[in-house]
From TrEMBL:
Family (UniProt): Belongs to the zinc-containing alcohol dehydrogenase family.
Protein name: alcohol dehydrogenase
Keyword vocabulary terms for this entry: Metal-binding, Oxidoreductase, Zinc
Keyword match Transmembrane: no
PROSITE patterns: ADH_ZINC
Cofactor(s) required for function per UniProt: Zn(2+)
Cross-referenced CDD domains: arabinose_DH_like
Class of enzymatic activity (EC top level): oxidoreductase
Enzyme Commission number(s) from the entry: 1.1.1.1
Amino acid sequence: MKALQYRTIGSRPELVEIEKPTPAASEILLRVTAAGACHSDEFIMGVSEEEYFFKPVPLTLGHEVAGVVEAIGAGVTDVEIGESVLVYGPWGCGRCYHCAKGDEMNCEKGMRAPGIFSDGGMAEYMIVDDARHLVPLGDLDPVTSVSLTDAGLTPYRAVKSALDKLTPGTTAVVIGAGGLGHVAIQLLKALTQSTVVALDLGDRQLEFATEVGADHVYRSEPGAADSVKGLTRGLGADVVFDFVGIQPTADLAAAMVATAGHVVVVGVASGAVQIGQRTVPLDVTGRAINWGSRAELIEVVELAKRGAIEIHVERYSLDEATEAYDKLHAGEIKGRAVVVP
Ligand code: NAD
Ligand code: ZN
């Protein structure tokens, strides 16, 4: 079968021919119907050899996966051959306290996420380790739904965790209106009565943010903090969601958050907001989000079924997958790049 693999640290991913896997006991073989390209894959491919801590290469990419059940291993029950499913990605052990709560991304044994710590779904077929990691898709289109598993789930957890701060009349800022951020804007519009402000680099991205519901958009530059203060009687944003996570965006978040506000960091990079008596307004809280729980994935699928959120998708074949990653790398994707094998 064809698979898109990260094979040499420091190089771009390659399309290769590998053996089609067979499911062992308790495993499920999916025929992949769609796989999303996430900026976290760019992070993985940007880590140096000394600091690389993911599945040793070759690594089949793809942690956002939808598929149809092709075959099941011994002992798998309650899964139908031919069933259309989404894959819950942050696989944990299933038995520790966090896993018992459905927060498998916080598993005490560490995550075994496909496409990151085991082979993923950017391929014609993929093995899922356990039936509990499948969420029925029903009639939803796998191509427009696949990214609910990360570009939907992660901002959903981020927004949900901040809802107590987002009372009617408050202001929320989304920094980075890309794959995750454009869903965050829609989630904020669907779940709150807050004013939603988006920051991104260029006109194209800011127009996109407006298309998906942002009330105000500004270029992501230091002056944006004053623009947000101008909108909020000088008080600042009640919640800032940073989907970039570099130091300039962390500094922006710190400069625009209001007293008793909240900063949620989602972007995987080295930026940091320092919580302290002299660094941010008083009573500010912060949180770094890790993906989402199994229950939250089911909740976000329900939001999509009800039309509350819609992922903007650019389609690519597996043969075009390297091109999709090149465009993601260059910041040229509008919404999410989805590979359809
Ligand atoms: P993306 O490339 O689709 O979107 C990034 C957006 O940020 C783009 O619109 C880009 O123009 C914009 N941007 C870049 N630099 C900016 C800046 N300085 N100021 C404002 N905007 C800027 O990426 P994505 O797939 O949406 O992922 C976003 C981030 O979230 C990545 O860092 C990714 O690794 C991370 N992520 C984290 C988790 C988690 O669990 N914490 C899960 C998935 C992704
Ligand atoms: Zn991701």
